[in-house]
Amino acid sequence: MGTFTLHSKTGKPMPSVSNGGIPGKKCGTIILSAEELGNCRDVATMQFCANKLDKKDFFGKSDPFMVFYRSNEDGTFTICHKTEVVKNTLNPVWQSFAIPVRALCNGDYDRTIKVEVYDWDRDGSHDFIGEFTTSYRELARGQSQFNVYEVVNPKKKMKKKKYANSGTVTLLSFATESEHTFLDYIKGGTQINFTVAIDFTASNGNPSQSTSLHYMNPYQLNAYAMALKAVGEIIQDYDSDKMFPALGFGAKIPPDGRVSHEFPLNGNSDNPHCSGIEGILEAYHQSLKTVQLYGPTNFAPVVNHVARYASAVQDGSQYFVLLIITDGVISDMAQTKEAIVNAAKLPMSIIIVGVGQAEFDAMVELDGDDIRITSRGRTAERDIVQFVPFRDYIDRTGNHVLSMARLAKDVLAEIPDQFISYMKGRGIKPNPAPPPYSPTSHTLQTEI
Fold it and tell me: Can you give the C-alpha Rg of the chain in angstroms?
């Protein structure tokens, strides 16, 4: 716990000391308190309605909403949920909402939960209607006479002898389910299939020249190899056979020099799998000697390539991750958007690492963090694309180990949530983890 005084000039928090800020100018105090959250995976889903709430608006009824508070160990309360506002009614029915049990009561079923009811005002000066207290254990009883609460305004109660309440709030439904984690599925046997697609377009520069992003420096890895190694070495541990399809796009390939946007780096169309990350790097270096960098930069073929495999296994036993490493401007934006919208329904995620100094505006658009991508009036079911620019991770001190660790962390940050969103959306639960192998549980008999 700590106390800070706002510096009146900079607005930045500073430790509260006598000579901080401008003398005689104190802007206020911020108190930070913390409590370690318990390891409770349950998520509670509940819905409430209210009846005969106090009328607060002069020209109308009320615009009620509720605020839920978790009680802390020190007796204070912390906001953990706000409902939506239901306009112009004294008998609102709020939408059901889900909240982690650890956020509601930190896994302590008897801890007080305080609920305040307000009438919303446009200027933010919401009128207090009343409050009540409950607990997780009480709520878990579900809809019953125990979960009808009188909303009480303490000030009104003190002033008016005949005051009963300011309305009632009723629990309509309550359910809990355990939230499964990414590792629960991995322990249960779900396999992560990792595919790499590398950009071989001419904009990367001639691989024999040191200015090229594909330049094969005998002393250090180029940007493509570094990005591949950083991400691949972590994700390969989630794939039991360590055999990875590796593709290239945007090059003229032997023997006839046709342009391909979906060719195997190892030259084997029947089996594009490479053994481990080292196998992919070896195939990548061999490809640079045999193909001619060309163009345009088309993503849709490699996205659809992986989507074909993902569409065949939608039972939760496998999940597909496509890593695209590229130097820039995409040529088939409309087709790629359509491919991603289609792939968003499948057990699949796409990581795009941008290398070089190009503008990556299109890649940011494909990464649906801010605005979910659409194609032909259809919106992607979920966000499955994560984009990171490689240049943000080049350490000026030359410490590539730290740089690549940060790159891998940020690149893989969204995969578990994307994975869970697919499994949850399909109602797929993880298989139970097999019991740990114990050599002592097996007795060997030897006949002499």
Answer: 29
Q: Where are the beta strands (DSSP E) in 7-94?
A: 13-15, 29-32, 42-51, 64-71, 77-82
The DSSP 8-state label assigned to residue 437 in this structure reads: P
Give per-residue burial for 160-188: e unless 16+ CB within 10 Å, then b. Answer: eeeeebbbbbbbeebeeeebbebebbbeb
According to the model, what pLDDT value does residue 106 have? 86
Q: Percent of the chain, pLDDT > 90?
A: 60
CA gap 90, 411 in Å, rounded: 49
Window from 29-33, 36-40, 98-102, 367-371 with minimum mean pLDDT = 36-40
User: With 0-12 CB in 10 A as exposed, 13-18 as middle and 19+ as buried, what is 297?
Assistant: buried
Torsion 308-309-315-316 (CA) sign: negative
Cα torsion 340, 342, 348, 351 to 10°: value is: 0
Question: What whole-number distance in Å separates Cα of residue 39 and Cα of residue 3?
Answer: 28
| pTM higher than the cut 0.85 | no
The answer to whether 171 and 154 are in contact (CB under 8 A) is no
Euclidean distance between CA atoms 180 and 422, whole angstroms: 12
Of 338, 345, 337, nearest to 314 by C-alpha is: 345
pLDDT in tens, 386-408: 998 888 887 666 667 678 888 88
